[in-house]
């Protein structure tokens, strides 16, 4: 006969206490972490949107999530840039022995598809056309 997990209430409590301990450790580590986006900038935009918090850990957590979001977008835009430049290099010069060090220049061509993946629509301003 198999015993179900619900028959023992201590199993669920052990998992909850482990998750609570991990969360408290994470919050302690968050106090010592300084994100790329300053707390004052995050607090300003949170206040502008109607959110107010006195807990600096919460503001740092939102700053960390924002940093991750921007990092993901920048990484995706870089991948688009690499694909675009590699196809241009393959078409323009097939007889070179090998490129030395590539310098990538990200443009709106790279940023727009990366932003589109996250549901953000961006258009190039008319004066850059």
TrEMBL record:
It holds the Pfam family TAF10. GO terms for cellular component: SAGA complex; transcription factor TFIID complex. Keywords: Nucleus, Transcription, Transcription regulation. One of its GO terms (molecular function) is promoter-specific chromatin binding. InterPro entries: TAF10. It is found in: Nucleus. Belongs to the TAF10 family. This is Transcription initiation factor TFIID subunit 10. It comes from Euphydryas editha (Edith's checkerspot).
